[in-house]
Amino acid sequence: MRRLICAGNWKMHKTAHEAADFVKAFLPLAAAVPFATEIVLCPPFTALAAVSQLLTTDRVQLGAQDVHWERSGAFTGEISGPMLSDLGVQYVIVGHSERREYFGDTDAIVRLKTAAVLENGLTPIVAVGETLSIRDAGNTSAHVIAQTRAALEGLSSSQLARIVLAYEPVWAIGTGRNCDPAEANTVMSEIRSCVPGLHDVPILYGGSVKAENIAAYTAQPEIDGGLVGGASLDPAVFAQLCIAADT
């Protein structure tokens, strides 16, 4: 049975001090979240150490928002898999649309990063999704399938079993617009079928996910939780979302 995951992507929000305050407020609230729901917090790099020190149980997992594909080297400003592992990171987001749009992460780079995350014993959350122009042209399926296949190319069946996927329609991220749950479910079914070995892989929905709408998504058979942006920045709001995901 696939696991249910709620992952909060804080993006470029919260200092180390603010992140620590969040965790101190969130952990008591997380006790009310059904234990079957896995909770992941993905703070910015500068707050990883502060958050890691406070996550003393497995109830809440630590994630990072990106990684470089090399283990070390002359890559000024970058962070490697061993560095993340050393901080207690367990999940790493790769291929987020903002990385693709603003920082030049191509399908080939996403593939390298996915492999690097796995090679360092971490779990990649591989994000795919279409822009509004691609959707309006009727090319959603072809686009996300191509992204998925490119990211997972060359992975063994055992490696595929360790990944998490996230479908995030770009036009819904931070806009307040939501992809209809049934439509998202259809796209996720196509993603799950496009590469052998994804039957048991969790696929998360992202794109203006809130406590008020998460249950409508997780009620769909192909949707296994959410990759949450703005609604993960407030501890009470994110806790309520995590509770609602399993109702």
Could you characterize the architecture of this molecule?
With 247 residues, the protein is an alpha/beta fold. The protein has a single domain (4-244), classed as Alpha-Beta Barrel (TIM Barrel), CATH 3.20.20.70. It has eleven helices and eight strands. The protein has helices spanning 16-30, 48-54, 81-86, 97-103, 107-119, 132-136, 140-152, 157-160, 181-194, 214-218, 235-244; strands spanning 4-9, 37-42, 60-64, 91-94, 123-128, 164-167, 203-205, 225-228. An eight-stranded parallel β-sheet has the order 7-6-5-4-3-2-1-8. Helix 9 links the parallel strand 6 (164-167) and strand 7. Helix 7 crosses helix 9. It starts with a strand and ends with a helix. The mean pLDDT is 96.
Quick structural gist:
The protein has 247 residues and is α/β, with parallel strands linked by helices. The protein has helices at 16-30, 48-54, 81-86, 97-103, 107-119, 132-136, 140-152, 157-160, 181-194, 214-218, 235-244, and strands at residues 4-9, 37-42, 60-64, 91-94, 123-128, 164-167, 203-205, 225-228.
List its salient traits.
247 residues, alpha/beta, TIM Barrel, 11 helices
Q: What best-fitting shape do the alpha-carbon axes yield?
A: globular
Widest beta sheet: strand line-up: 7-6-5-4-3-2-1-8
Portion in helices: 40-55%
DSSP, total strands: 8
Strand content: 15-25%
Rg over CA atoms, rounded to whole Å, is 17 Å
Round the mean pLDDT to the nearest integer and report it. 96
Unreliable sequence segments: none
Q: How many strands, what sense, and barrel or not for the largest sheet?
A: 8 strands, parallel
Structure class: alpha/beta
CATH homologous superfamily assignment: Aldolase class I
